[in-house]
Each structure stands twice: as C-alpha cells, then as structure tokens.
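Many introductory courses stop at the sequence. We go one step further.
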Amino acid sequence: MKYKLLSFVCIVSAISFPAQKQMLDFAGVNYSHNTLKDHEINGKSSEVDAFINFPILKKEKDLVGGRLTFHHSTTSNVDSNFNQTLSGLDANIFWEKKLSDNSKLQVLAMAGIFSDYEDLSWKDFRYSMGGQYRVELGEKFSTGVGLAYARQFSGHQINPFVSINYKINEKWELSGLLPIKPKLTYHISKNLKWINELSGKVESYRLSENQFQNSIIEYSGWHAMTGLDIFLKKHHHLNIGVGYALRQRMRLYEDADTNNWKIFTFNLSEKSKPVSEIVFSGFKWTVGYSFQF
C-alpha cells in the first residue's frame, strides 16, 4: 500500500454511495512487523504508515478530495543490498463525477518521493493514475470496473480491476478490488468486524546516488491476512491483524531507463534483469488506529 499502487487504487473503494452512510477515515497510522525467511535468510522488517484525507471541492455532481500519506520501512538481517531504511511521501488527488442517481465516474492521480532520503533528486519521484466507472445495482450490491497505471522505478505496472460491495446477508459482506484486494467481512456486532483479506503489492524505491549509484529496490508479492476491526465511541477505529506473506520478492536493479511491464505483480516482460534477487515468505502482524467522521 506505503505507496503501493494497490493502496492507491483502494482509495476508490473507500468512496461510498451516499445511501450507504458509512463513516470514513480522516487520519490514521498503522504499524506492521514481518518475518523474512527462506533456507538461508532469517530477516525481519517493520513498517509505519500514516495518512490524512481532506476535502477540496464539493458540488451537487462533483467531488474533489486529497490524501497525504507517509510510509517508512526498515529491513534488517537480509544482506547489505537489502538492509535498507526507506521512506515514501506522496500526495493523492481524486475527482468524482455523479452521472446519475446510481452511477459515478472516479479518477485518481498520485505523485511522490520514494527513496532512502540520503541525497534527494528528481529521480526519486514516481507517479500513478487510474479511474473507474461505478454503479449501484440495489441496496445490497454495487460494483465498478477500472484500470490503474503506475510508473515504478523498475518499469511499468497496470492493474485492471473490478470493485465490488456485496452484502451477502446481515452478517457477511464481500468487498474490495478483484482480483488484487478482495475482502470478506463478518459483522460480529455493530462495533466489531472480523476481516479476511488477500492483497498484492509492488513497491519500488531509489537508493542514494553517492552510496548506491541510484540503484533501485523493488518489493513484490501477496499477503493473506485475518483480523479484527474495532469501533469505539463512534469516531475511533482500531484494527489488529495477523497473516502470512506468500511468495515475496526483493530485487535490486542498476540505475537505468527500465521498461519492464507487470500486470498486478506478474511480469509481462523483463527487459532489465535484476543484479540481485531474494525470494522469501514469512509471518506478519499489524496494529493500527484511525479517526473517523
């Protein structure tokens, strides 16, 4: 998520139809810890993510909003190439156009700095953009179709997706983005939810020119998570979760004009080869807080 393209795309699914009357996160912070294991590696990583959402313009048929996010990660006990402290700071803008009482068009864009912040330059900027057409088909079902593009330092990434929000019954709900971030929710009570989620990610960061000659680190893979969403006193949202990182990859590329293409996390072409690569898996746990309105 961080600024992963998948987290960027998920801003789309956070915008609900007015009839749903759900609370939205205003600001929040999340901490996660990961173990990184294979037959030779016994590493770990930690991540901190923070965000704030803000309105820009609201009219009868138009809505414009923004989001600032900060991501900080530290990886250790892997090797000298991948033992890095990396950060991302980005700004997101979305525009929503109401087309009818039950349909809307949504467009999003993001740009930010993703690096080790040792010696910043314009090379440390990357961007994403995307959009979807979304329609409400009844009180229990809404869906949309969209496409997102990210210019990663290691190449290009495209994500076609279908968004869904289906209230199966009073307890169960299927939502998220298919196939990249589906989520199955069980409503235990008004203030407690059990969440089960599968999510993929691709992230890339540029390293220091002085120390690493502007080399690029890319992370990609999938996580399966289960956890609880807890709502306290109307405006406070806590979340805790545990999960497993399925097949994950860390790749190191030399500084070059890379033109690799990915769909989701899978390679369509690989014109630039990594100079180093690690494949691993491991357990993950997260805890977070957000303020809602």
